[in-house]
Amino acid sequence: MKSLAFVQRNDTRSAVGDFSPVLSVLSYYDLGNTVSPFLLLDHIGPGQLLPSTQQKGVHDHPHRGFETVTLVYQGEIEHKDSTGSGGIIRSGDVQWMTAASGVIHQEYFSSAFSQHGGRFEMVQLWVNLPAADKMGPPGYQSLTRAQIPVLDLPNDAGTVRVVAGEFDHITGPAKTHTRINVLDVQIHANHEVAFCCEAGDTAMIYLLAGRLQFSANEIMEEQGLAVMSQHGTGFVISALENSRLLVLTGERINEPMSGRGPFVMNSYAEILQGYEDLKNGQFGLKTSS
Fold first, then answer.
1. Going by DSSP bridges, is the β-strand pair 234-239/263-265 parallel, antiparallel, or unpaired?
2. Helix (H, G, I), strand (E, B) or coil at 114
3. How many CB atoms lie within 10 A of CB 193?
4. Is pLDDT of 278 > 50?
5. How far apart are the C-alpha atoms of 256 and 252, rounded to whole Å?
6. In what side-by-side order are the strands of the sheet with 57-63?
């Protein structure tokens, strides 16, 4: 069994464009390849958007070399990018964007949600791509709530939504470049759930709300990120309270990594090339999906 290696915490909230508050839980600046293939995890909200005729969000910005995964728990986000892809991501939906060789995109609260206002909460995850796919064509997957399978756990322990990968022989709809699991989990108080993953894989648990226990002396409060040891082939989570969490596991990409801002490549020379290509308009190839 995997054991708890450490808990990553950052209690400082900030703003990303007009999105606020944003809790930057994980960044490749902090952990590098330690939790490969995962690069970043931002918890946006919970917050309250006041009604407005102006759409707020993040203006045009580039990405290269990885994928962005946005899970919307409350609110509505509108996405547009330089490949022509886009749409509305509603509560329960997931947006999976493969930046690969380069995408310029914008993310705003949808027009309808902006006009009415309301509660919002999202998580954005960045997933690294192997070198062979970093300069491939961009892609876009819009995963609606109805497309994501939900499993009821035995003994009324909770539920698991399988966004990517597999849980209990159920496969999620997301197409991935490496073997990863993205599971949106609810565990009821005083229940425990076992999760499987291979030896050597990265395994993390982000706790959006609630309280978890990993062993007699290892308790994690909400908005903590548990990073499990690489040894062992599974782990057990116990909920001390009703808890909402993301379980993220995957095979490590054992390649050099160089990142700066919105670009994550294998060398600094490739980062410089990215800025040069952006300046010369070499982003926004036709989507592969």
1. unpaired
2. helix
3. 22
4. yes
5. 12
6. 57-63, 103-109, 77-81, 86-89
